[in-house]
Amino acid sequence: MPSPFTPSFGASPPLLVGRDEQLDAFQAALEGGVGDPGRAMLLTGPRGAGKTVTLNALEDLARRQGWEVVSETMRPGLAREMAESSLPALLGRVDPGAVTSRLTGVQGSAVGFGAGVTRHVDDRYPARPTLRNLVTTAADLLDRRGAGLLITIDEVHSAAVGDLREIAQVVQHAFREGRALAFVGAGLPSAVNDVLNDEVLTFLRRAERFTLADVDPDDVALALRQPIELAGRSIDDAALTIATVGTRGYPFLVQLVGRHMWDATPGQDRISVDDANKGVEQARRRVGRLVHEPALAGLSRVDRSFLAAMAVDDGPSRMRDIATRLDATQVYVGQYRLRLIAAELIHPAGHGRVDFSLPYLREWLREHAASQALPNT
Ligand SMILES: Nc1ncnc2c1ncn2[C@@H]1O[C@H](COP(=O)(O)OP(=O)(O)O)[C@@H](O)[C@H]1O
Ligand SMILES: [Mg+2]
Description:
This protein has 17 helices and ten strands. It has three domains: about 20-210, Rossmann fold; about 215-295, Orthogonal Bundle (Helicase, Ruva Protein, domain 3), CATH 1.10.8; about 300-370, Arc Repressor Mutant, subunit A (Orthogonal Bundle), CATH 1.10.10. The protein starts with 19 loop residues before the first helix and ends in a 10-residue tail after the last helix. The strands form three sheets. Strands 2-3-4-1-5 form a five-stranded parallel sheet, sandwiched between helices. It has a three-stranded antiparallel sheet with strand order 8-10-9. Strands 6-7 form a two-stranded parallel ribbon. With about 375 residues, the protein is an alpha/beta fold. The chain binds adenosine-5'-diphosphate (ADP) and magnesium ion.
């Protein structure tokens, strides 16, 4: 029997737990009507926290209420692609007959030419509806059905900031004009912060912001047990406890631990303590390859040494100790502290201390110590 778990990025879990706050807030915003401030939302959190799948859940929630969704991932050229393909396709679905004439009308009056001139101009420069026309038209058509248009953008970052500006300005305008529109963006905290510092993107600064944190143990246990039982197997209480603790509340590990303990002895009815231990161990290795390795790939040698110096401790590290271990001044290591905080690998943990932000990163660094230069140990 195949495992019900979905341990890959962007793959919706069999049971999404711990995200009621975001789902409820969005539901309330849809019910709140045009202009409800909750209709602009930003989701942040580290890799594997569930940004993409939460975004998908919000989209489903909107669709169930008759909304249409333009679901995109940030990339250069996105604004143009939306204007040339996603929105025309959506309009074709919503109102196949009326769209062309309506858009031509909008274009004509917006440009302000008389009929003859418009045609003359159109012949040489075929009228192309702007992103703004398309968004407004779609929102208004859907408004008449008591619904609206939801635009979501995943993996928000500053690399394609020109496109994001263009889209955000259109959305901002539509909000101001009282159109039936909602916007949800998602991205890593540092990437979203970069974007929020952009002068033009003030609209996003007012969006309701949610950080997707770790999930509570009760929710983790449910997210493991329920899919197992629905798929026709069961799990020992002690095994469930081991698996739950093993995830450390990190959503990606919920799926990885679930998958690997399921696969330990797939022929058995019950998942045992032994299966759970094996599952946690294998999940931990996979998270090393899928999360820790890529996260560390872009770091400098000093960044890595800093992390290796932290991994010596069993809990939060004192900056003073890190400086000693690296044989460097506190001012020097302070620079690296800031860089690593910005990269979401560590976070401040009380006065003069820092701790790891990703589960099992400490263990991973210890096991891979050979490749992480550390001069003074
Ligand atoms: N709330 C949750 N409950 C259970 N599994 C989750 C939850 N959030 C995410 N997952 C799982 O974690 C993995 C990573 O989710 P994803 O949305 O791709 O993360 P992100 O976009 O933040 O990097 C996926 O396998 C997904 O099914
Ligand atoms: Mg994602």
